Structure formats: structure tokens, C-alpha cells
């Protein structure tokens, strides 16, 4: 930063160092990264001016071979090695995935781990690792654009993500080498982007966020810089992907097509469905055209048919809206503004349905694809400490109740949904056997009464109590949810005031040790990446040198070189080209040095000749004058 | 009070600088809540040491819990009683006035009939009105008893209030079922 710092007289010059921070919207279909510069939030673009980064990664045996737009274009030709919509899998078990519509898009490895692994040419990959690859690409984009390393980021998650999905997202960021200041809920981030525009606005707003794979509705109260989430509801398996699938299902039944196990055909059908969906945002009908192997489809889809296919999905979202209103203890007419977020809210029928439900015009001023990343970057800027005078404060809630298993497979609620976070609750337990020194707690998340209907988060084993008579021990277990919505459990034996050891066995998450080893692996990979980049640079340099030499020799080799000198140079040139094929960057370097050495005489002769040319007709005095303008 | 010296033992009313009472000024509670949030919320410590940010999480969780207790009239009344050294756990003793239990049963039956009535929303509203009125009466009486330090009577009233609160929750569940049908 070589810019001049101007400050008020008497004030010190910038004691505060600006930290590079970014907001990342890690989406099901697309991801974005945004930063705040000179007080303005902007989404960052690639060289082609594209801000949207498709959340798609293609692997070959060496690792990531294509990512983003390039990978999406290759999805149909290499379906099993091209992973898209990975966010739908994050934090899920193999059974969850098999049950979901997305199940057929991936081949899962058979193993004992609770975290399913997708089999790819690069080996088995967890959804966490695939997400980390996407985050790494976004990190590179941000660091390139900012010209420095990121100090920290805000990563957004669907408000309705449970503890496992949040933890998995945070693990992915860690794996990508990012320092996560905070996980922020997507609708909350969108509200920040809207709310900060109207600093004076005190209002109750509903954020309707229909993304590629998830749906959230959050109701917030905005009051003098405070964003207080009153309630949130949603569905983490409902989004634009499902709209596409509904179109595909309709086409399949209309045309009598058997997709069978053809994952490539399935991808092509979904791609076409997406294109039809986009066209129907501004037209009354669209053509579904597809040519894949023996399958050829040409069908017209009218906007009425499309809206009908959509109606079931829309009703599900409105159900969540009603639930969120009830939880916030508000009536529809108490909502001042309805904000639309997510690419799927571009569909006119979605806007119309939401507008009819809340009985008011919906807000779509900010690009629905970008609004979450922009809000996240504003929050990241504040968290980095770049805006010490900011009065922005974000009070969010836990979306799903936390409970523990009691006898009979019943759930006892510990922290109920829509409680403001951070939140904590202490509960006292006792032992039921003489001399008992350990106990296990099964923690679940959800609203249902039976453990089997809720989501299992993990088993917490508390060890190291003093052995006493049954019923004598008093063990206080504290359940704490932090500002990211993540649970930690601690236990204190009250008589001895000793903290018990707590071991977590996540039901569907990675153990800390697994994450550590993944980070180690990725560092080894990073070393390999550095070596590969050096080799590539060396090759380019060699090619350029040969090109320059060829150009010069074509012009004046015979003028400056005799036959033997010329032959020496040509031999050295040949060995450079030879080494360039070896893949050994040291060998290339050596050959290049050899070429430079034998060319020295040629270079200096050419140089002298050109200087002589330039000085022709000028005398020494005129140069002296230039040097000494006095 | 700063992040190091924050006192977790302080009672909730003192934390929010409010007089110990069943009746509170909601706007004062909210103003103090925001002030405490601005001071201790972990967002203010995102770039600080992990020890400081962990402590901020604990403090804010405590503040949120205290705020939740004081902003809900029933939880607040229970807390007042607790400060006076009395437990309000439902299990401690279940002796209830027969007349009150009869009334409870009738209300429950009315709620059950809502779904099959001609105009479910209208009949739900009328049962709800009845429950709300009873809650209002009971809470006012409980508050007066606490004020007069008639804690035994207050405990009895709070127990009734807890019953009525459960009925109100059930009414909400029924509304959710109606909405989603």
C-alpha cells in the first residue's frame, strides 16, 4: 500500500491495519465471493467478467482437472467424475443420499465410515473435500483480486442447516485453508445487504430464499443497525434442482423414456430442463430439445404446464412461511417487506405466489444470485475489525431444537428452536450404578418426540467421574450453541468441581483427527502443486527463449555468426527442446543456461550493431545535453 | 463490567439493571439487552484471541438466557419465586383444585372439537380467547401475590398458569395443523 495516507491534524495516521476479508456464498448450484473495498461491497469476477462460479468439480486421477464453469460443461460426458450439487450431500449419511433424488448422480464407496465417500477417478471424496475444492478456487479468486492473503471469511449456510451440516461446512473451509470468522445464515446475510442500504429503516422483514437446493424463510426485525432474527423455517432439500427434476419427470412420462442407469442422460435431461426453466421466465413456452445417444426429444413446454409442475413445491415453501410467522408470533400484515433471494426466485410464478401469500409486492432490487455474498462480505468486513465504528449487530437463532435421548427412545428438549444464539443450558444428571465413572448422552436435533424421527448429532461420552454410590453424583452437563449455531458439550462434576472428559462421536460427521489428516494430505498436495507450477513456468520460459532465438536467427544469423558458432547454438537449442519433454524442471533450467551461454556472443554482437545503428548521425554532445539539461 | 470481570452469579434483574419484580418495563429490558449485546457479542471478538471469543460466547449465552427468562411473563414469575427460594417444578406436588381441573378438561375437549367444527378457525379463536383471559387473570393474581410476598399462593397460581400455558401451546399446534391441511 504505497498510497498517501491523509489524516486530520492531530490524529495519528491509520493505527489500524486493514485486513483482507471476504464473504463466500457456497451454493448448491453456484457459488460467489464478495469483498468490501473502499466501503463498497462487490462480487468478484473471473477474467471473463463472470461473478457466478458453478459449484461443480471434475476429477481425474491427478485430482481436480476442471472446476466451475469448465467442469459444468463437461458434466454430461463424464458424469461420475464430475460432482455437482454437492451441498445436497454435505452432512448426510449414505442412507440419506440413497433415498434422495440426487442419489443416482453419484457412485458411493462402500465403507464403514459414517461419512459417505463419492467414488471418483481421484479416489473416494467426501462432500467436505469437494466443497473444500470449490472454496479453494474462490479463495484464489479473492486473493488474486485483493492482492494478498485473506485474514478471514464469512461463509453462508442455509438457515435451516442442522449442526452436522454446519460443522461439515466449517470443516470444508478449514480444509481449504480459510479462517472462518463466522457461519452466517443465508437469509440473514441477504437482509444485511438490503438493510444497510436503508440505515434508517426500522422494519420487520421476511426473507424468502429459494436457492438451487435449499429453501429458507427467515423473519427479522431491523432496528437501528440490529438484525434480530425472530424465526426461521425451511427445507434443506428443496430448491431449483427440484424444479428441474419435476420438468425432467414430466418429460420422461410424456415421452415414455427409460433413463435406466444412464447418468449422462440424466445430466443432459437436467441441463435441458434448466434451460427450459430459464426461457420460461420471459416466454410463454419453450422447446425441450435433447439428443443423447439413441434418445432424441423435441417437446414444447408451456408456462402453464410448468407452473402446474411447480405448484406442489411452492405450497411446501408457503407452509414453511406460515410456520415461521407463527413462531415469530406475527400476522402476515405485520410484515413490512418481503425480500426475494436465490436464483429460483427469478421464476415469475414463484414471485407471484409469494407476493399473493404476503399480500404485498416483493423486493427484488438486488440481484438474487449476488445478495447473499454481498451481505456476507459486509459482515466479514465488520468482523475483521475494518469498521470499528459500525453499529451493526446480528442476532440469529438456532433453527432446530436440540434434545437428548431419554428412556424409551423419547426426546427431552434442551434448547428449543428459534432461541437466540449463542445459547446455553445446563442440566444435572446423576449416576444409576454404584461406582459408575462414565456416562453417555445421545444428542439429537429436530422437533419430533421420538429419537428415531429426529436427526442424530452424536454421542457424547463423559468420563473420569469419582466413583460414588448410585444417585450421589451430581454431574452438570452444559450444552452450548455458539454464534455459528454449533453445539459443544461440557460436563462438570459438582462435588469435586472437576471437568469431565467429553468425547464426541459424531453420527454423520468427520472426527477431528480425520480432518487433521485431510489437512495434512492437502498440504502435501500443495507441495506437489507448487512443483507442478514451477515445471510449467520453466517450460513456458524455455519455449519463449527458443521462439525469440528462432525469430532473431531467421533475421540475421548469417550476418553475425560463422558456421561453427551457429551449429553450437542450434545444438544447445535442440537440447532445450529435448529437456522440455522430460518433465524435469532442473534439466530444463540447465539446458536453458547452456543455450544462454553459447548465444552470448550472438546477443552481444547484435546489441553492438543496434547501438551503432541508433547512434548514427548523432554526436556525443547531443547525448551529454540530454543527460545534463541545465 | 468487561469480558474478564463479568459476573455470572448476579441475578437477572441486576444484570439488566431492573428492579426485582413481576412487572417490568419491556422497553428498558430491550434497551439494556441491546447494550449488553453490543458489549459482549462474540462478533466483536471474531478477530480476537480464541480464549476471549470463547468467553464472549459464554457471556452472551448467559445474557440471552437471562433475557429469555425476563421477557416471558411466566418464566419471569417462576424466576421471581425461585429468587424467593421456592421451587416451581411441576413434579414437586401435583395437588390441584378440582374445580380448576374440571375447567381444564372442558377447555381441552373444546380444543379437540375444533378440527371437526363447521368453522375451525372461528371455534379455535373462541377457545383461545377463553384461555387468554384465564391466563391474564391468573398472571395478574400471581404477580400480586408475589408482590405481597404471598409465595405459597403465588406458587399455586403459577402452577395453574403453567397448565394454561400448555393449553395455549396446544391451540398453536392445532392452528398449525389447520394451516397445513
What can you see in these coordinates?
The complex is a heterodimer of chains A (630) and B (181). Chain A has helices spanning 69-73, 94-99, 127-146, 163-175, 186-195, 240-255, 263-279, 303-328, 348-358, 371-383, 512-560, 563-580, 585-615, 620-627; strands at 21-25, 30-37, 40-43, 53-54, 56-60, 63-67, 82-84, 117-120, 123-126, 152-157, 180-185, 203-210, 215-223, 226-235, 285-292, 295-302, 337-341, 393-395, 402-406, 410-415, 423-429, 438-445, 455-463, 475-481, 487-493, 498-506. Chain A has 630 residues and is an alpha+beta fold. The longest helix of chain A has 49 residues, at 512-560. Chain A is globular. The two termini of chain A are 35 Å apart. Chain B is globular and about 60 Å long.
What is the fold's blueprint, element by element?
The complex is a heterodimer of chains A (630) and B (181).
Chain A lengths: L20 E5 L4 E8 L2 E4 L9 E2 L1 E5 L2 E5 L1 H5 L8 E3 L9 H6 L17 E4 L2 E4 H20 L5 E6 L5 H13 L4 E6 H10 L7 E8 L4 E9 L2 E10 L4 H16 L7 H17 L5 E8 L2 E8 H26 L8 E5 L6 H11 L12 H13 L9 E3 L6 E5 L3 E6 L7 E7 L8 E8 L9 E9 L11 E7 L5 E7 L4 E9 L5 H49 L2 H18 L4 H31 L4 H8 L3
Parallel strand pairs in A: 1-10, 10-11, 12-17, 14-18
Antiparallel strand pairs in A: 1-2, 2-3, 2-4, 5-6, 5-7, 8-9, 12-13, 13-14, 15-16, 19-20, 19-22, 21-24, 22-23, 23-26, 24-25, 25-26
Helix pairs in contact in A: 3-4, 5-10, 6-7, 6-8, 8-9, 11-12, 11-13, 12-13
Chain B lengths: L11 H4 L10 H15 L9 H22 L1 H11 L14 H17 L5 H28 L3 H30 L1
Helix pairs in contact in B: 2-3, 3-4, 4-6, 4-7, 5-6, 5-7, 6-7
Largest sheet of chain B: none
Alpha carbon gap, first and last residue of chain B: 52 Å
- What fold name goes in the CATH topology slot of the largest domain in chain B? Monooxygenase
Give the oligomer, counting copies of the same chain as homo and different chains as hetero.
Answer: heterodimer
- Count of separate DSSP helical elements of chain B: 7
Please compute the radius of gyration of chain B using only Cα atoms.
20 Å
Helical run tally of chain A: 14
CATH topology of the largest domain in chain A, which one?
Answer: Nucleotidyltransferase, domain 5
Could you give me the name of the CATH homologous superfamily of the largest domain in chain B?
A: HscB, C-terminal domain
**Helical residues, percent of chain B:** over 70%
Mean pLDDT of chain B: 88
Number of domains of chain B: 2
Indicate the structural class of chain A: alpha+beta
**Which two chains form the greatest contact, residue counts included?**
A-B, 29 and 22 residues
Low-confidence stretches of chain B: none
Largest sheet of chain A: 8 strands, antiparallel
Structural class of chain B: mainly alpha
Strand content of chain B: under 5%
